[in-house]
Amino acid sequence: MTAGLCELAALVGCSWSYETAAGVLKRLRGVQFSAEHVRHLTNEQGKALASQQHEQAWQILKGAVGLQRMRSQHGQEDGGMPSGITREAWRARSGWWPVTSSRWA
């Protein structure tokens, strides 16, 4: 079984019921899978993707923590705001604005 076929099985498995997905695979690729096998392939692909996304998020988080440490060591403890610039000017330059409406609270 190829990686492409596993990916296709996961795609149709998350798009339709597993039984319908098995029928679609038979029509598209001529392969006979049971609904249970489509479910298994869909779950395996989902686990692999979740693991990959988790690792990417962890790398981003580690980078952000390291960046925050660097900022605090260089006297930029307010979210990286350089000294000598007002908070309002920094917000305008960075595009960050606090939510002031109570409906967003």
What would your notes on this structure say?
The protein has one domain (3-93). The protein is 69% helix and 0% strand. The model is unreliable at 101-105 (pLDDT under 50). The termini are far apart. By secondary structure, it is mainly alpha-helical. Helix 1 (3-15) crosses helix 2 and helix 1 (3-15) packs across helix 3 (35-73). It has helices at 3-15, 18-29, 35-73, 87-94.
What share of the residues lie within helices?
Answer: 55-70%
Give the terminus-to-terminus CA distance: 50 Å
Chain oligomer state: single chain
Counting DSSP E segments of at least 2 residues, the number of strands comes to: 0
Count the helices. How many?
Answer: 4
Average predicted confidence as pLDDT: 80
SSE string, helices as H and strands as E = HHHH
Query: Any low-confidence stretches, pLDDT <50, length ≥5?
Result: 101-105
Classify the beta-strand content into a percent band: under 5%
- The coarse silhouette is elongated
- Biggest sheet details: none
Number of domains: 1
* Radius of gyration, in angstroms, nearest whole number: 24 Å
Global structural class: mainly alpha
